[in-house]
Amino acid sequence: MTPPPRLSLESLGQLSPAAAAPRYDRASLIPAIVHLGLGAFARAHLAAYTDDLLNAEAGATNNADWGILGVSLQRPDQRDRLNPQQGLYTTIERGPEGERARIIGCLLGVMVAPEEREALVARLASPRTRIVSLTITEKGYCHDPATGRLNMAHPDIAHDLAHPESPRSAIGFIVAGLAARRAARLAPFTVLCCDNLPHNGRLVAGLVDDFAEALDPALAAWIAAEACFPSTMVDRIVPALTDDDLAAATRLTGLTDMAPVGHEPFRQWVIEDDFVAGLRPDWEQVGVQFTHDVAPFEHMKLRLLNGAHSALAYLGYLAGHETIFDTVSDPAFAAYAERFWAEARPMVPPPPGQDLKTYTSALLARFANPAIRHRTWQIAMDGSQKLPQRLLGTVRERLAQNLPIPALATAIAAWARYVGGTDEKGAPIDVRDPMASLLRETLDAAGKDAKSRIAALLAIEPIFGTDLPRDPRFVEAVTAAYTTLLASGARAAIA
Ligand code: CS2
To answer: What's the pTM value of the predicted model, to 2 decimals?
Structure first.
């Protein structure tokens, strides 16, 4: 049997009638958005919203220019899958009622930064580029998570400061692009951070400033005066691509797509309305919320969604659960999630019009979506970069009010158990974390005793700061939870 034709502009005519195709004229789009870190999430979120807007505006001219150029900062695989399809790909929405496929048309192509550094800087400096958006994950910012400052000793940052015209890091590319615009007397672009970091716009502005200041204080002053760094809260559960997704895309579209993306129905995007010259797509027409203060939304999302995600990922993985769905289908873990939220909710001021109990009930339902196979191992990645904003802020605020932290301490103990590198059956864990070797060495040096292992991990300042390791209430709670995890296993520990 010959495989169905590869998805492309030419084969769109053969798209299955059940799948939706772009209704706008793709030829009129220009890549006014350059997106750094093009992964599944951005393709199911930023690009899906933009595609909705283009569909809604089809025929009108005012929004016809907002196409997206994707950039991979490391590997070529997204380009190799997407460029032969002219940037087209299938999104598969998976809800309790079944699957719905559509073709996204606003991605115009993908560049691979390490192979075309100068060309990418030239793109960023092009007058047509208005927005540079980012989903590069927490570690992509090369910062110290506890202080939010740029890590000048990071190898990529050290390289980029020595070779600013030929950068490696996202921060290096942004500053190179802005420097070229300033030299050409162009306005800067807006930097739109879409990663799960607190005050993400302000954070990136600070990192760009740290970098530019080290290079050229006049450039730093120009960026501070002219550029915009709106903060955002982004939300949609988008697991990494699997072979099942490839088969599902073919089944639903009748075409071969090497880069489909599966996602849950829910999505949310809250953006601070602060763009250079006010230039941005009218995303509010398709459900994006613009506000002058994103902080309460990101607080709620990072602490309640991502906090519970990380807690369930470590505990669930240790208990042998492959996905978040498997984990919360186990009543002991669903009950744990409720206890976690009961600890976290009082430390979250609700955003306008939002009831937090309703929010966390909806989260449990989202986690329990059987059609979404989000691996605990995927969420467990990069814990050193995630713990501060997901768990430790809540811990600090509860301790300041002398409130107990049993569920939070259990989550941190599960992380400590996880980064130890062996699971409850003695099998090795593939720990992915920029600090993986430091974590390993720290634990090896600490020996076998639970108290000294926890003390050694909590002494890692970029994660825990200087206050938490000195707080006996925190240290004792995490040590006790860790001891129980070792003795009884994750499931019994929470049951
Ligand atoms: C997850 C997030 O991988 C992770 O760490 O917690 O990717 C989560 O799925 C998204 O933030 C949901 O919006």
So the answer is: 0.96
